[in-house]
Specification:
The protein has an eight-stranded mixed sheet with strand order 3-2-1-4-5-6-7-8, sandwiched between helices. The protein has two domains: 198 residues, Rossmann fold (3-Layer(aba) Sandwich), CATH 3.40.50; 228 residues, Rossmann fold. Helix 8 links the parallel strand 7 and strand 8. The N and C termini lie far apart (52 Å). 41% of the residues lie in helices and 14% in strands. The protein contains 15 helices and 14 strands. The structure holds uridine-5'-diphosphate-xylopyranose. Uridine-5'-diphosphate-xylopyranose (UDX) binds next to helix 9.
Length: 428
């Protein structure tokens, strides 16, 4: 089929490339001409494993990009809204970009006679598709639902592994108000061996939030248990290794440490808290998931203070700036509150990340950024490991250049640690 994708972030660009790989003709739409030019040149506008190969294969053939909504809607049968849904200052979801995209799509639909399906793929709180997107499309197109179709099709893509996750889904969820629109959206995924769960839009929206909120809850649970274990001299990884053997629990997402970051978990849990509060329910558990997560970074700095006393004037090495390994993304990275607290305490911060130095330098320009661990550690009074990069697991002799070989590990990287370093695990 012919598909248009509104928004060329990691969800939009990956979805466009993968739909092209599945045999569809795809046109991407964005207001950012630079991204449009990159995609048309077959160059990935973001870092995603496997994306460059797909763009090079399909750009200019099955996959094109434009800033022209009218052209995109006229030349497609289905339009996916894949724009950002940031959080506003009090944590509630900001639907401004979704609303703008819906208005533009509605205006473009006005002059189109053929049936067209609008699909919300952006992560939106329950009721958004029906109560926000649908009315805007009707208002701007002058049509009624039925003359066009509407559906909600959430994504479950991990950043850095998004292409793999799109092509190997463990679930595909399609929420629609009518069967016709739902059937069309479900058919787009027929090239994938995965059952399609059919439901209504608000249930599809809730499945997405529940999926992320549950994963985030597991992490905060692991951190709570880890913090208790730490006080008792127990290694929480040993505990979770055994607990994860329970077939009802499983081994994944029980890694205690500096906590979760990224553009999804913090934002989505807060958005769900906001929605629950809006409808008069007090989400105690979800609030505690955020509170535990926000305390983990300061627990790292507290250990440092307990070990070094006054921090002012000290040189501290921070290894890892991205919110997780294999990405350059620093959004909500646990390194941000740590670096802020160190700088506020008069510390000279020396940092290194295999991919994220440049992105973090846009947040902190008063940090020394290095190109490898050894340079970062040179003369340091202590080292904090903040991101689970594989290369940090091999560190050993690099610590010899430190003034004091004190290593505080926030990601269970050095297990076991080298004999002659003063090692402290955050939760183990
Ligand atoms: C997540 C969901 O996994 C994905 O399905 C959803 O579509 C988007 O949000 P992502 O944010 O890319 O994906 O990263 P993920 O790999 O899930 O890790 C999120 C954060 O949790 C990272 O900061 C990671 O360091 C942390 N984490 C993960 C832990 O602290 N402990 C764990 O056991 C696992």
């Amino acid at each position: 089929m012919k598909i248009s994708i509104i928004g060329t972030g990691y969800v939009g660009t990956v979805s466009a490339a993968c739909f092209a790989e599945l045999g569809h003709r795809v046109v991407c739409v964005d207001i950012d001409q630079e991204k449009i030019d990159l995609i048309n040149a077959g160059i990935a506008p973001i870092y995603e494993e496997g994306l460059p190969e797909l763009l090079k294969k399909h750009a200019g053939k099955r996959l094109n990009a434009t800033t022209d909504y009218e052209f995109a809607v006229r030349n497609s049968e289905v339009s996916f809204i894949c724009v950002a849904t940031p959080q506003d200052p009090d944590g509630k979801i900001d639907l401004g970009i979704v609303k703008a995209a819906s208005s533009s799509l509605g205006n473009s639909l006005k002059n189109k006679k053929e049936y067209h399906v609008i699909v919300v793929k952006s992560t939106v709180v329950p009721e958004t598709t029906e109560k926000v997107v649908l009315p805007i499309i009707e208002k701007h197109s002058g049509k009624h639902h039925g003359d066009f179709g509407i559906a909600m099709n959430p994504e479950f893509l991990r950043e850095g592994k998004a292409v793999y996750d799109f092509m190997h889904p463990d679930k595909i969820v399609v929420g629609s108000l009518d069967k016709k629109a739902g059937d069309i959206v479900a058919s787009l995924y027929s090239g994938l061996e995965c059952e399609v769960t059919r439901t209504n839009p608000r249930t599809a929206e809730m499945i997405k939030y529940t999926n992320n909120a549950f994963l985030a809850t597991r992490i905060s649970f692991a951190n709570e248990i880890g913090n208790i274990c730490k006080e008792l001299g127990i290694d929480t990884y040993e505990v979770m290794n055994a607990v994860g053997r329970d077939f009802r629990i499983g081994q994944y997402f029980l890694n205690a440490g500096a906590g979760f970051g990224g553009s999804c978990f913090p934002k989505d849990v807060k958005a769900l808290i906001g929605k629950a509060s809006e409808i008069g329910y007090e989400p105690l558990l979800l609030k505690s998931v955020i509170e535990i997560n926000e305390r983990q970074p300061s627990r790292m700095v507290q250990i440092l203070k307990n070990k070094l006393g006054k921090l002012s004037g000290k040189k501290i090495a921070v290894l890892g700036l991205a919110f997780k390994n294999d990405t350059d993304d620093v959004r909500e990275s646990r390194s941000i509150p740590v670096i802020k607290e160190l700088l506020d305490n008069g510390v000279k911060v020396s940092a290194y990340d295999p991919m994220a130095n440049e992105n973090m330098s846009r947040i902190f320009n008063n940090v020394q950024y290095n190109n490898n661990a050894a340079d970062t550690l040179h003369g340091a009074d202590a080292c904090l490991i903040m991101t689970e990069w594989d290369e940090f697991r091999e560190l050993d002799k690099e610590f010899n250049v430190m003034k004091r070989k004190l290593v505080i590990d926030g990601r269970h990287m050095l297990t076991p640690p080298g004999k002659d370093i003063e090692y402290v695990g955050l939760c183990w």
